Amino acid sequence: METTTSLAAVAALEAQHVLQTYTRQPVVFVRGDGTALFDGEGRRYLDFVSGIGVVALGHGHPGLAGVVADQARTLIQTSNLYYHPLQGQVAARLAALSGLPRAFFSNSGAEAVEATLKFARRYWFSQGITSRTRFVALDHAFSGRTLGALSVTATRSYREPFEPLIPGVTFVAPGDVAALEAAVDDQTAAIIVEPIQGEGGVRPLSPAYAAAIERVCEATGALLIADEVQCGLGRTGHPFYFQALGLTPDLVSVGKALGSGVPVGAALVSGAVAAQIAPGDHGSTYGGNLLAMRAADYVLTTLVDGGLMTHVQHVGRVFETALTRLAAAHPIVAEVRGAGVMRGLELTVDAASVVDRARERGLLVNRTAGRVVRLLPPLTVSEAEIAEAVAVLDGVLADRAAEDTK
Known about the structure:
Elements: H1 7-17, E1 29-33, E2 36-39, E3 44-47, H2 50-53, H3 62-74, H4 87-98, E4 102-106, H5 109-126, E5 134-138, H6 147-151, H7 156-159, E6 169-172, H8 177-183, E7 188-193, E8 196-197, E9 203-204, H9 207-220, E10 223-227, H10 241-245, E11 251-254, E12 265-269, H11 271-274, H12 290-304, H13 308-329, E13 333-339, E14 342-347, H14 352-360, E15 363-364, E16 366-368, E17 372-375, H15 383-405
Parallel strand pairs: 3-15, 5-6, 5-7, 7-10, 10-11
Antiparallel strand pairs: 1-2, 2-3, 4-12, 8-9, 11-12, 13-14, 14-17, 16-17
């Protein structure tokens, strides 16, 4: 079948046959190279979305492409009825990075969150404590679109059409220690938090609030789930951001960057929780297949042994300095938030027009939480590319502010 790259033709075909759950931007991408994407007409765009934090190694990475191609020729799938050489290898790497000794492999971050919720409930059930089924989550939280993950996602408009969701979820404001203490009790299975809230507006938890979460878990016995699907695996310059905050989670969900575009996720599990999990408690047909594991192994090797995490620490400081200067020059920027190469600019106006104008000038950024411009370049982004992106934003923000004064 011949493939067209015409925007009009692609949009028309999708309108006829693809379920309309996405509002797409008017561009068709056909090729990538590093931090650049190219449309059907050959125009270059600087990609500071990276598949919503997925393409950790950049587009068209030759090393990743090589191992994926090699594995595709060799063996892709056998099912979890049998052993293969790679799951244990990737799990060991994740254990070394996180301190949690076991992993369950899934196909996405949302599936990883589902697994952590199930494992938290199973932990208590296995001990005969059937009353601890509730969860405490945070305002602005986003953990995915499946029913369990959606149940601990705060956005009302995402939740309402699909209710009733899983019962017993309480949301509290990040930073409100009294509300947290009141919400967590002897019926709470777990508290689930994103160390940096992504979809909710790139909002890092404060160290003081992280310390309060630790105190509450210690006092009540509630498990702690760290949702690191977006902020984990080097994006902040740390293996996981819970480590920077001093949190000690019992369960961690990861996805996105783990396969740098190859779909894969994982639930990382403490020894205490793992001891309560039995064969048959969870499963996945595709989870942990050889293709995904080969990609994940390559990404993790590059992250640590290839010096990528050190690179992120360096360019993250450059990024922060550049965005801080940008904010000082433009009153339309209310706040700069984030860490490493996970950054958000909260504006005093809706961010939609800034996203559109940036794209028209060859820069891809993302709007989230209404007024936040989210920037998630590949972990391989260079200082020069950061400077180029900030220069585009400088022009866009100046034009937007000028219009407001007319």
